[in-house]
Amino acid sequence: MDLQLRGRRAIVTGGSKGLGAAIAKELLAEGAAVAFCARHREEVEAAARELCQGGGKVMAEVADVTKADQVEGFFAHAVAELGGLDVLVNNAGRAHPGTFATLTDADFQADLEVKLFSQIRCSRAALPHLRAAGGGSIININAIYGRQPDPSFFATTVDRAACLAFNKALAMEVAREGILVNSVNIGFVRTPQWSNIHQRRAPQLSEEDFLAQTAAAEVPLGRFGEAEEVSGLVAFLASSRASYITGASIDVSGGMGRYV
Ligand SMILES: NC(=O)c1ccc[n+]([C@@H]2O[C@H](COP(=O)([O-])OP(=O)(O)OC[C@H]3O[C@@H](n4cnc5c(N)ncnc54)[C@H](OP(=O)(O)O)[C@@H]3O)[C@@H](O)[C@H]2O)c1
After folding, report:
1. The whole model's pTM is what?
2. Among 66, 111, 173, 255, whose CB has the most other CB atoms within 10 angstroms?
3. Which fold has domain 9-189+229-252?
4. What residues are labeled active site?
């Protein structure tokens, strides 16, 4: 299927590793020009070097999506470099496991900043450019816990539910302007985020054993997903082949998500 992404211009937040890096790579392979940001300079530069090897236009900058001035600066530089904007992938985020008993108000505030307010802030920065392009696409990377509450990921559960409401309401508000807004809800996908969770929860196990046990208990397909099993859907949603899909919330979760 030709996704007709050649010539499209995309921003991916949190593109230095994990899902964001796989999404940036997939969009580039489909012919799009890609700008990405993350906080750690060395990782940003290493990821940019690796992405450039596949050919295509890559722009990378250090920026923290929880800081309004850094988001404004990154979007201004990225749009100037790409010559406009057609696609925003709101991917930057983190896992912060914990129950209501263990998480503080400060933990909840920080989680809201990186999950919900980053999507609000980056969408606000992107919209004028998507309008100028005559339309475009915003894809929000969220979690199935926004639909299936899990008290052991309490902040994620609460904040991702808000992200899903944001996704739907924004889709409705900008639909008549030809701007599509969709959510991709992740279950368990193997990324550096899970190395951190492994270290916190079960450092006595090997990472392979920890992931295998976690998947066996919770994932109907019985295994973790790979980042490349997410990036194809994101590229599809960014493409004109998804032109009648907006306000959708699509799980990539190996069957996780106990709801209909
Ligand atoms: N993997 C899963 O199973 C899973 C499940 C549910 C939801 N998700 C969501 O999917 C998204 C990607 O997760 P991942 O697993 O790929 O995580 P990851 O491996 O930890 O990668 C996260 C990326 O986001 C960047 N980032 C984090 N905080 C940032 C900030 N404040 N400003 C700018 N960039 C930031 C990181 O770089 P720096 O640290 O250098 O900033 C990195 O590039 C996240 O929103 C996550 O919550 C993942």
Report:
1. 0.98
2. 111
3. Rossmann fold (3.40.50)
4. 145
